[in-house]
Amino acid sequence: MVVAQYTERQPPHDLDAEAAVLGGLLIDGDALHRVLPLIKAEDFHRARNRFCFEACVSVSQRGEAIDQITVARELQRRDRLEEVGGLPYLGQLIADTPTSVNVEYYAGIVADTAAKRRIIAAGNRIAEIGFEDSDDAEDAMRQAVDVLFSVQPANTERGFIPLGSVLNVYLQGDIGDATLTDAPPLQSGYSDLDSLLGGMQRSDMLIVGARPGLGKSSLALNICVNAAKSGQVCGIFSLEMSREQVAMRILVAESGVDSHRLRLGLLSEQEEDIIINAVGVLSDLPIYIDDTPFQTAMEMRSKAQRLKLERGLDFLVVDYLQLVQGQGSRRGYGENRVQEISEISRSLKAMARDLEVPVFTCSQLSRVVENRPGHRPQLSDLRDSGSIEQDADVVMFIYREDRNFTEEEWEQHAPGRPYPRNIAELIVAKHRHGPTGSLHLYFRDTLMRFDELMRYEESVA
C-alpha cells in the first residue's frame, strides 16, 4: 500500500521552536500579538505545548497579563496543569529562552512544520480516496483536488498593513500606470469598455445579462479570445454548448467566414485557406474548454484550481449562471431556486477572489423586461435572485433597439435618426469600482462577433 512507507516515519516537527515560542510568550506576553497571525494552537505538534499556547490565548482574551502564574492558573482551571508538567515545565520554558526578540522567527518554524504535516495528512486522505471501492473516477478526482487545495499554506491571513505600504506602488514608477494590485487588470479588447471599467479587475465577478439571442455567449467568447491573444490563460465553462460548438463560434468570429456556410461546408477555396490560417492562430492560444453539463460551483472551482496549478489561469468564463447546479439540487434537497441561485452567485464570487481572476459570467434575464415599454433592461431583471446584483462587481446588459422596433416603428419612435441595425448598446448598470455608463458595439450576427463601432464604420467606409 502506498501510504505504508510513511507510517513509521516521524511527522515534521521542531520541539525546540515550539518551546522557544512559549518561552518568549511567558517572558513577554505582548509578543502574542506578533505570533497570532502566524500560528494557531493546532500548529503545535506536542500536546502539552498546544495546551500551553491555548492557555496563553485565553489569558490574553480576558485582558490579563501572560506570565508563569496566570498561565498556570488557566491550565489548572482546564485540568491540564499536571498533564503539561506543572509549574516546573513552565519555569523550564522560561529558563531555556533567553529573550522574546526572536519569537516570530520560531513561530514561522512551527507554522512551516505544521503545514508539512497537513500536506502529509492530505496525501494520506487522497490515497484513501484512491483505494475506495467506487466506479466514479471523476468524482474521486474532484474529491482529491478538494483535499489538496484545502491545505492552506502558512501565513494565508493578510492582516493589517499600513496605508503607506499599499500606496508605495505609486512611487515606484509612472503614477498613470500604477495599480493597487500585484497583477494589472485584464483588457477586454474593446477600448470603450476598458476605458469605462479600467480593465477587468482580478478577483471580480462580471455579469453580462440579456434575453436569449442577443449575444451574451458571443461577447464572452470574444473577450476571452482577446485576452488569450494578449498572453492570458483563459478557461471556459460551457454548460449549454458542447466544446465543438464553442470552438465553431470562436473559429467563425476569428476567420470572418459566414457561420452558415462553414456549418454546411459551402466554402470556396479562398475561404478554406482562411479557415486553415484561423485554426493555426487559435490553436496556439492558451484557451481551455470544459463542456461538462450539470456542474456545481464547487466542482467548477476544483477544476479551475487544478487548471491554475497545471497551466496557470488569468480569466474565466461561465456560460451561463442559471445552468450551474446548486449543492441542494444535486443532493435532492428540493431547495427553492432563489436560495440556490444565491448560493451559486456567492460561490462564483468566492471563486473569483480565491483564484484572483476575473470571472465573466453570462446570465439570463426574466421575462419582465419584455413587458416594459422599450424593453430596456435594469438590475431587477436579473433572473431568479437579487443576490446576483449584490455579489457582482460589474453588471452589464446587452440591449438592441432593432430587436424591439421594426424600421417603420423606429421612424415613428425616433424620426430622423438612422435605424440602428445590428447596433448593440452595452449598458454598464453596476460598477463597484467606478462609474456606470454605456457604449455601442456592432454585432455581426453571421460571424457571432462584436466589433467596436468606430472600427466597423472605418472598415466599411
Short description:
This protein is 48% helix and 11% strand. It has helices at residues 4-7, 15-27, 32-35, 47-61, 68-77, 81-84, 86-95, 103-131, 137-149, 163-167, 191-197, 216-229, 243-255, 259-264, 269-283, 297-310, 327-331, 337-355, 387-391, 407-413, 453-460, and strands at 205-210, 234-238, 287-290, 315-319, 359-364, 394-399, 423-431, 437-444, 449-452.
Please explain how this structure is put together:
By secondary structure, this protein is an alpha/beta fold. The protein is built from 21 helices and nine strands. It has helices at residues 4-7, 15-27, 32-35, 47-61, 68-77, 81-84, 86-95, 103-131, 137-149, 163-167, 191-197, 216-229, 243-255, 259-264, 269-283, 297-310, 327-331, 337-355, 387-391, 407-413, 453-460; strands spanning 205-210, 234-238, 287-290, 315-319, 359-364, 394-399, 423-431, 437-444, 449-452. The protein has a nine-stranded mixed beta sheet, sandwiched between helices. Helix 2 packs across helix 8 (103-131) and helix 9 crosses helix 16.
